[in-house]
Request: fold
Amino acid sequence: MPEQLFQFLVTGITVGSLYALVGLGFALIYNASDVVNFAQGEFVMLGAMTAIGLLAAGWPLVLAAMAATLLTVLVGLLLERFAIEPAWGASVVATIIITIGAAIFLRGVALLLWGKDFHAMPPFSGDAPIHLGSATLLPQSLWVLGGAVVLVTLVHLFLNRTLVGKALLACSFNRAAAQLVGINVKVMLRLAYGLSAGLGAVAGILIAPITFSSYEAGIMLGLKGFSAAIVGGIGNPMGAVAGGLILGVLEALGAGLISSGYKDAIAFLFVLMVLFFEPTGLFGHKVAERV
Amino acid sequence: MSSRWWKINLAVFLLLVGGSLSSAAEPIKIGTFLSVTGPASFLGDPELKTLQMVIGNLNAKGGLLGRKIELIHYDTGGNAKEAVDFVKRLIKSDNVDIIVGGTTSGDTLAVIPDIEKEGIPLISLAGAVDIVEPVKKWVFKVAHSDRMAVAKIYDDLRKRGLTKVALITGDGGFDKSGREQLRKLAPEYGMVIVADEAYGNKDTDMTAQLTKIRATDAQAIINFGFGQAPAMVTKNIKQLGIKLPVYQSHGVASKTFIDLAGDAAEGVRLPAAALVVAEQLPDADLQKPVLLAYKKHYEAQYGPVSTFGGHAYDGVIMAIEAIKRADSVNKATVRDEIEKTKGFIGTAGVFNMTPEDHMGLTLDAFKIVEIRNGGWKIVE
Reply:
């Protein structure tokens, strides 16, 4: 039993780091505009699908990954410029609905470009399992874990240590005041969408060898990533990572120890409990309610 | 004289009018409702393409009974409620003569009450046994049943002397129906189910369930499902270093599965329709020419064939043959003719319909294939 338990934990951390990586992308846009971007999952899908397409066309991995990320950033910027910016001044809910529309649109475009099939991406460094005592994990999982650590550190440093990052946060706290002290709110918003798209794309490329990808892959990943983000406290990049890991481990333990049929129910029950008792998430900012 | 001229003129006029009327005769309408988008899209998509291809070709050759054929299609997106609405529309406002379709068992089962009430022949492309058992007057099906797949797997296990099996299935309709058959048929084949695990079809990791299976004394793993999840299961089995024989269902009998699972797919066995191994069949095989012809035709237009497109081929050809024999589109006569289908060589096997059997396939329709070097190999 303890050997099994160890494998469940390893599985949980693998799956959790995947959720964390996707959840991270939600933080930036939320920080800049209080909007949950439901097209975040589609950024993840776009990054993965573009990279897979370029790899199939014979590009080397690094180049394909970079090109896919840049392309997704461009899509993020275009989305902000032509869908979000025209709705300047609209309520948060209206903007969220726009992002849902954008997600459906991006999915449609991906369907036309790549068809309905699932596509596999070769792992970065082979698929010989690594043995940790009695448990095994794939080398790609280490890439995902490492990627999550690097990205969360970068996002954290950016938001807290750079002037631009602080300006971004300021927009979220009080848009009018931010504008008064000379922050160009529109530019900040564009930056947030571009960076989020880039984060999503990198996440997508890192996890594609494990999860496969298809035009619809963004839906499930977006949902799980979003759950991770709200458990951890949306807007807090560290929280998203913690939330993702907690969800992943809960799912794996639920499947292993209780019943595999109920593992999603167990994870979502936990999300509900968190929202019920800690509405701002486990690691959310305990700020006074803005009206 | 003049009155005679008048009569001749009238006769010529009537002939002309009559002639033009018959050449402008209403087309024969074949209705269909498929899951061209949604989770079962990789089934519905080749099905629709096949229907369009077959009907297009037939129209180019002059149609059926001197009339053109019109295909009326609605995409259900795999939503059974939509399927019901679309079938009502097909019957009541499009006035179709026959319906070929229902990609998924869920879609098909949902429309059966309306089909039976309105009395219109339906040839379903879906798998579940429940569609034709108990027999419904107007409902036929051409796809292999999940029960046949299960019987074939158990049969192969018995030949290898393996009796303890671990099941791992997804949460879709196909998976659940397969699991039910696996449990139902186990005693008949002397199988003992030592583990029965589940996963969500969109899950990205099944190692927790497989770790539990590893701790049992299972001699083989059976995974019943379709889409990317079975590929994930297969990869996870390899990752955990589990050396047991792995059986998949006919739901993954497509090249996509091999592409997704990669090396891990080597040695996996599954029951598959003859279509995927058409070239390997002996020349004496009755199905071989039919399979190769369909394959060549389809691949020239759309790319690799799948057994699911094959079901659409069987369904629409069976419908066309029945209309030909009935020499009309009278619904009752066509239904009777479908029921009399004998020795019809389709892509799924040789069909012999009877009033008691509205599918008409035997276990021979499946071959057990093993994945070797990224391709299929018949192993029976």
